[in-house]
């Protein structure tokens, strides 16, 4: 098994490509070890000292490290943990999983929210997945769109630029009711 790695715009995060499916559909975000109880893969990666976050996509695993740790020191252990997981034959997530998805929105802005979600799904999320992350809709209130950033996007130094110059401009172009985009914590 050969696992490729790719850097991401977030220097604390690396994208690991095992060459096999990680998840059948959607994504799964594990921002801390205690959130990974249903994921044998994420739990195994969290066992590597210095790992602070794990994000699973269709064909990739994004790992975030503590600032005090160097990739040169933990990358071999993370590669080993991913390899051991695939050799074990266990699924990435056991039991029923809650997929990382857009928040539901009820109310008078239903049409606007549908347009926002469609643009996120068709234009934003595929591009962000290339960098090892995901962005989901969290809410819409008085022209402000709230988005949840996951994986490599969470804590990325360029995420503010991505939100303001990329996503906000895109949404404002297609949906005049949108005036601003803001990130939210998990």
From TrEMBL:
Pfam families: Nfu_N, NifU. Coiled coil: none annotated. It comes from the Bacteria. SMART domains: Nfu_N. Residues 3-89 form the Scaffold protein Nfu/NifU N-terminal domain. SUPFAM superfamilies: Fe-S cluster assembly (FSCA) domain-like, Hypothetical protein SAV1430. PANTHER family: IRON-SULFUR CLUSTER SCAFFOLD PROTEIN NFU-RELATED, NFU1 IRON-SULFUR CLUSTER SCAFFOLD HOMOLOG, MITOCHONDRIAL. Belongs to the NifU family. This is NifU family protein. It comes from Albidovulum sediminis.
